[in-house]
C-alpha cells in the first residue's frame, strides 16, 4: 500500500489507497478552473453571510472565514497563491488555504453546501459576467459600424447576390446590415441572461439540505432574480453554458461573414477597401503583399467557437441527473470559445474603425456591370403595365445586346432598343443612371441614402441608448 499521506485531506476520510497518477491527472481541473477564483470567493462569501444570518454558524467563525477569503483573493490576484494539482480544483485549493489560515473554522464554510452547487454557481456567475462584457463589446462594434455607415451613407457600390453584381447599393447601407446582425446577437445574449439568472446555491449535492438556509438571501446578495426552483435541476443544469455558446457561435458566424467580405474587398481585383498597415501583415517572400491576416483568423476561429456548443451538448446528452464529473469538461471549450470570440470582436472593431473605402473603385465596379437592368424592367412594368416576367425577358435581350457590343446598357442606341421593344424611349437613359436607381429605392429599409440615414437614426435609438436591450 502506498503512503496514505497524499490522500485528499478534504474528502479522504473513507480512502485507504492513494489515487493512481493518471486518474489524478484526469481528475484535476485546477489548470483551467483556477480562473473561476473570483466567482468561487464571491459565492463563498455570500454563503457564509447567510450561514451566520441563519445562525447555522457563529458570527466569530463567519467573520474569520470572510476575512480569510478576502486575503486569499488578494493572494491569488497578486500571484502569490500556490495552486496544487493534488487539490484537484479551485474549490478545494481555496478551502485548503482557508484551513491553513484559520484552522478548524474553515471546515464550517462547506456546511449546507456541496461542490456540485458550488461549481454550478461559479460557472453561472462567470457566464453571466461574460454576457455583460460581450454586450459592451458588441455595442462598441455597433457604434463603430454606425459611424462608418454614416460617413459612407451616399457611397455607391455594387450590391451582390451569389457574389455577382446585382443592384447598386450604398456602402453605408451594407455596413448597417451588420449593425442589425450584431444587434440580434445582443438580444439573444440578453434573453439567455434573463433565463439563466436563477441561483443554484443551496441545492447542495442534489437534494437540498436539512440546515435552515435562506436561498432568497444568497440570491439577493449575488444578484439573482430568484433561487432555482428544483435542487436536482440546479446542479444538473448547464443550459446556460450551451445557450451562451450557441449565441457565441452565431455571433462568430456574423463576424466571419464580415471578415470574408473584408478579405474579398481588399483584393486587388476588387480594391473596394483599404486596411490600415497596422492591421495587416507582410509576406516573407513577396514584397508587394499586404495580407489581411487579422480578418482571416477571425474567419478561421469560427470553427472552434461554433464547435464549443457541440462539445458541451455531447458531454451532457448522455448524463443521468444530477451532477456527474463529465460536466467538468464544459470549461475548456467554454473558456476557449469565449476568449476567442472576444478577441475576434476586438479585431473586427479595429478593422472597421480604420478601414478606408476606395469610393472610386466601388463606383467603377457599379458602371462595369449591368447593374440597373432591374430598374429598366421595373420601368417597362410601370409604363406598359406588362407583367414583370415579360419585362424581365425583354430586358434580358437588352443585356445580351450590350454584352455583344461590349458596352453598358446606357450606351445602346435607342433605335436598337426599340427593335427589342417599341415602348423604349429617351426616358430610359435616365432610368439607367446608377444614381437615379439608387435614390429611387426608397422602400422602408431600402438603399436610398435618405432611407439609410433614417436607419442610422433608428439604430442609434434601438441599440445605443442606455439600457435599451435590457430585458
Ligand atoms: N471540478 C468540478 C467540476 O468542474 C467541480 C465539482 C466537483 N464535484 C464533485 N462532487 N466532485 O465540475
From TrEMBL:
InterPro entries: Arg_succ_lyase_C, Argininosuccinate_lyase, Fumarase/histidase_N, Fumarate_lyase_CS, Fumarate_lyase_fam, Fumarate_lyase_N, L-Aspartase-like. Residues 370-438 form the Argininosuccinate lyase C-terminal domain. Residues 13-306 form the Fumarate lyase N-terminal domain. Keywords: Amino-acid biosynthesis, Arginine biosynthesis, Cytoplasm, Lyase. Transmembrane segments: none annotated. Pathway: Amino-acid biosynthesis; L-arginine biosynthesis; L-arginine from L-ornithine and carbamoyl phosphate: step 3/3. It is an enzyme of class 4 (lyase). GO terms for cellular component: cytosol. It is found in: Cytoplasm. Its EC number is 4.3.2.1. SUPFAM superfamilies: L-aspartase-like (SSF48557). GO terms for molecular function: argininosuccinate lyase activity. One of its GO terms (biological process) is L-arginine biosynthetic process via ornithine. Its main location: cytoplasm. It catalyses: 2-(N(omega)-L-arginino)succinate = fumarate + L-arginine. HAMAP family: Arg_succ_lyase. Belongs to the lyase 1 family. Argininosuccinate lyase subfamily. This is Argininosuccinate lyase. It comes from Candidatus Endolissoclinum faulkneri L2. The gene is argH.
